[in-house]
Design brief:
By secondary structure, the chain is mainly α. Helix content is about 85%, strand content about 0%.
Length: about 160
């Protein structure tokens, strides 16, 4: 089975369940006026997008690490940092926005959301920026080429056996 098919098999049900559970797990705060009929389609669109991103994020966490090892053959630490950062950036939006909708104007709840979601999102962005810089330096220094050649030679050796 192709990876795309596996990703779809995971993403679609996760997205559907997340979309349907969102108002149950994160009931909207009873503060101010509700959305207008003109605003509702936009909120539904965002809800669908968050649910799909959650499903894609879970699929990425299941299938993404081997790909990142190929992108970063010279550094397992960099591959893990990219894997965890990308996974967090994708998976965290659904509960993050759900908690915002439920929180209302509670400043204590807002601080929890900021520390649990916003701060790690900032850290993940910085980690990915550093990883991109590190990959560029490895490429410029020839480390990536050497790591890829060593991997190809190892695979060729296994094929001969």
């Amino acid at each position: 089975m192709k990876t795309r098919t596996k990703v779809a098999i995971i993403t679609v049900p996760v997205a559907v369940v997340a979309f349907l559970l969102n108002p149950i797990l994160f009931p909207p705060a009873q503060v101010g006026a509700g959305p207008t009929s003109a605003q509702l389609p936009f909120l539904i669109f965002l809800g669908v997008g968050d649910a799909v991103l959650l499903g894609l994020g879970i699929s990425f966490l299941i299938f993404g690490y081997p790909l990142l090892r190929k992108v970063s053959p010279d550094s397992r630490a960099r591959a893990w940092a990219m894997y965890l950062s990308i996974g967090y950036l994708m998976v965290s939006w659904w509960p993050h926005l759900g908690m915002h909708a439920s929180n209302g104007t509670d400043i204590g709840g807002l601080l929890v959301i900021d520390f649990v979601f916003h701060l790690p999102l900032e850290v993940a962005g910085a980690v990915l920026a550093y990883c991109a810089y590190s990959l560029f330096r490895s490429w410029r220094g020839g480390k990536l080429t050497a790591a890829i050649q060593a991997e190809d030679e190892a695979l060729a050796g296994e094929a001969v056996r």
